[in-house]
Structures are given as C-alpha cells and as structure tokens.
Amino acid sequence: MAIIALVSAKGSPGVTTTALAAALSWHRRLVLAECDPAGGSILAGYLGGALDGPRGIGELAVGELRDGSLESTFWSQLVDLDAPRRERLLLPGVVDPAQAGSLVPLWQRFADYFTGLERGAPPYDVLVDCGRLAVGGPPWPLLRAAAVVLLVTRAHLPDLSATRATVRAIERDLTEHRVPPGNLRLLVVGDGHGTSEISKVLRLPVIARLPHDPRTAEVLAHGGTVRANRPLMRAAGALEVPVRALLDRRRARLAWPGATARATAPAAEGVPGAV
Known about the structure:
The protein is an alpha/beta fold. Helices cover 37% and strands 17% of the residues.
C-alpha cells in the first residue's frame, strides 16, 4: 500500500493516538514512522521509555548525513511493537524538537525509501505520523509521496476552522507538485458536528470517524494494556478497509488517460468506512 500519511492542522486532534491505534490493529506488515518535527511521543509514552539505547529517525538522519547509511541501518532503528513477529514496527521520532532541523533536507530521501518498502521482501505498508503542519520544517515530501493522506480533525468549530485552511494548503501544494488527485481525505475524531456536515463545509470526503474513547487514548498515550474490543481499537482496525478501497480505486483511475485532472466536486461521505 506504500505510504499512508496522517497530519493535522494544529492543536491536539489525536494524530499520534490514531496512528498508533491503527498500527496495532493493521492486518498487513506495517512500519509506523513518527515524522512529526515537533518530536515523537510513543517511546516515552506508550512504551514507557523501555529501550536499550537511542533509536529512531534522528539516528537515521545523523547516519545518512554523515555517510549515507540509511539502507544499511534502517531496520536496526525499528522497535517491534508485537515482538518477536516483526509485523508491526515503529520508527521512533526525534526526542528533542531541536533535532528536527537535521530532518528537513532528508524528508525527500525518507519519502523515496518508505515508498520502496511496499516492494520489499517481505513488503511493508508505511503509516507516517506527520504531526501538525503548523510547525517549522513540516514533512511536505512525505505528503506528496503518500498514496493516501488523512487529515485528522476533531469535530468542533475551532478545529474545523483551522482544518479548512489546511485542506486548501495541502490541495495547493499537491497541485503545484503535480500529484494526481484523489488521495486526500478527512478522518474525524470524537463527538461534535455531523460527518455529512463536516464533509460539506470542508468540501472534502470523510473516510471514517473514530469514537471518543478516553480510556483507550490514555493507554495509547501513557502505556498499559490495549484491549482490542474497546471502541477506538475496533474503529481503528476497521480503518484499513476504506483506506485500501480508496487506494485501489485511485490506482484504477490513474490507469486511465487524463486521470490526473483534479476533481472539482467531491461527494460527501457521511458514514464510517466510506471512501
């Protein structure tokens, strides 16, 4: 499936929580890459800092800038979230946001490398937590390389107002870089305005809606036992179906001549699992 990128406008709509819940529920081999320039949180939070040494995208960036060692060191920088199966792997983010500057010249390099993982032996999907776009050095190359971009938003008016501007910014950037249309969708988190209303106001389809489940969110943020039957985990597990359907349809469209024309009137999609 190549790259699935999750991003938000601002604030804390739950991008990392959503990405982690999806990663723990994914049915194919998956790498969850924390590429938020503001810093990663899964190591210190969900994993409780239990590692035998520094690991993650910051270490990869140092090695790549020093001697171009991304390919040779990539797999050693991953954490097995379901050890020892190596089916759900985590690439931790930077610990200190000051390190994010070293990632800026490497975002395209990482995008190219992640794209190739779906052709590996065995193949891996890559779920990328891009964090908020309203930070310095956002990972635009990863959004451009993504097969699917999920813009995560809560359903209250202040969040939707910020998300509206971010939708337009992403659409402008993808158009300027000649990225074929059809890969951007909204992923709504929690209670608030209705899904159909959100889709109509933001002029972008909603791929799914994740429920308000503070108990599970607390475990994903700070550690503990993840229960697969909790509402958030069930919804996150179901997210893979519409994402894969969207990707399949998009690839089928791109096989036709003239398919790169950007759609002008996206349909509202008002139920979880719609694509």
